[in-house]
Amino acid sequence: MREAIETGRLGIAAMTGLEVESVSSVSKSETGYLLTVEVVEASHVPSDRDILCSITAMLDPSGEVQEFKRDRRYRRQDV
């Protein structure tokens, strides 16, 4: 599972052009994995004004991204 998660993280970063900051959740599905990550959409100074978003992706068993969507946007200071 760990390898699939890392492959998924790299795939999301490559597809969006955004840095994956953290993995929020992962669960096994019938077709692979459901992965939710947090990415920085816009960096600001100070960093508490950064705009982050949650992205949920469906991964196949090897971790390749099959589809993804942005779930929500928020400021780091709102967490």
Task: List its traits.
1 helix, 4-stranded antiparallel sheet, single chain, alpha+beta, 4 strands, 79 residues, 19% helix
Short description:
The chain is 19% helix and 52% strand.
Instruction: Give the strand tally.
Output: 4
Mean pLDDT: 92
- Determine the number of helices (DSSP H or I, runs of at least 4 residues): 1
For the biggest β-sheet, the strand order reads 1-2-3-4
SSE order, one letter for each helix or strand: HEEEE
Report the uncertain regions: none
Q: What Rg, in angstroms, do the CA atoms define? A: 13 Å
Shape: elongated
Helix content: 10-25%
Tell me the β content.
over 45%
Distance between the termini: 28 Å
Characterization of the model:
By secondary structure, the protein is an alpha+beta fold. 19% of the residues lie in helices and 52% in strands. The chain contains 1 helix and 4 strands. It has one helix spanning 2-16, and strands spanning 20-29, 32-42, 51-59, 65-75. Strands 1-2-3-4 form a 4-stranded antiparallel beta sheet. The protein is elongated. It starts with a helix and ends with a strand.
